[in-house]
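Hi all, posting the design record for the shared folder.

TITLE: backbone redesign
STEP: 1 of 1
STRUCTURE INPUT:
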């Protein structure tokens, strides 16, 4: 649940990370990784934010998250999805100029040729899922062929060259963000101010504030409250803990502030959200 650098480990038997998810409701805060990530939504809905741009995924939608793109997801009412993550080194071995190659694949695309290519990606992921589940003799050979076929489509049909999108340059700034986000994640339940966070990281408050807003796209206080809300949300929908206790142990000191922020983000009160999740699970 962290806005942090995420280390992607491949499945033990294949060169990528492939997972099937059944999600009853969750929120993954902003984070990044060097792997190329593809989310294919099978059922339900999913909200994805990539570099400050919101995308709403419905059943049978697919989205590609490029290496080092800052992204987050919200699943409000449950969904099922498959997620494929291809390590950067794997891409680097087979794709020329990968550091300045950006793949464009999301639900807003209307170009008919691109839609055909996106449908091909869906078929590949569906085949990937079936073959990997069965693990018949020689399945790794077939899986590898599907990986290369998927990358071939992305490179030839759904990519652009963009010098502004240079992952080698982005690494420097994201390494500094690691320190900031780690500090917030370790201390979000405590009393934190912009000044105290900047002091912990040996940065001036002014620089810290500008740097954070530039690369995260929001103020430090809004980000901190969002992290607190995410932790409170998980506790709310997965436990019977009293709401006042949830508020207190997730760093909020003002009941009214929490209720206002919660309603602004989830369009309901905490009690209403708890009932929604339970009704959907039933």
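Okay, here is what came back for every position:
SEQUENCE:
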């Amino acid at each position: 649940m962290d806005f942090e650098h995420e280390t992607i480990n491949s499945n033990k038997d294949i060169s990528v990370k492939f997972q099937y998810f059944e999600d009853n409701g969750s929120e993954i805060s902003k984070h990044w990784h060097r792997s190329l990530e593809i989310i294919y939504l099978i059922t339900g809905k999913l909200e994805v934010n990539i570099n400050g741009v919101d995308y709403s995924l419905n059943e049978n939608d697919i989205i590609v998250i490029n290496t080092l793109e800052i992204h987050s997801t919200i699943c409000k009412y449950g969904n099922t999805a498959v997620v494929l993550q291809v390590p950067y080194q794997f891409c680097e071995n087979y794709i020329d100029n990968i550091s300045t190659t950006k793949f464009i694949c999301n639900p807003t695309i209307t170009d008919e040729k691109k839609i055909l290519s996106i449908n091909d990606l869906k078929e590949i992921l569906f085949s990937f899922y079936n073959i990997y589940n069965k693990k018949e003799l020689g399945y790794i050979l077939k899986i590898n062929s599907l990986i290369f076929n998927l990358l071939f489509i992305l490179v030839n049909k759904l990519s652009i060259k963009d010098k502004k999108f240079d992952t080698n340059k982005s690494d420097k700034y994201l390494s500094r963000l690691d320190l900031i986000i780690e500090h917030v994640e370790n201390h979000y339940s405590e009393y934190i101010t912009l000044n105290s966070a900047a002091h912990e990281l040996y940065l001036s408050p002014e620089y810290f504030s500008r740097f954070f807003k530039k690369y995260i796209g929001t103020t430090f206080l809004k980000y901190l409250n969002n992290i607190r809300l995410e932790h409170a949300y998980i506790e709310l929908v997965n436990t019977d803990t009293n709401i006042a206790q949830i508020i207190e142990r997730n760093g909020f000191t003002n009941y009214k502030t929490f209720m206002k922020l919660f309603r602004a983000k989830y369009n309901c009160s905490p009690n209403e959200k708890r009932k929604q999740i339970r009704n959907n699970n039933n």
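COMMENT: The longest strand covers residues 36-44.
Let me know if anyone wants the other runs.
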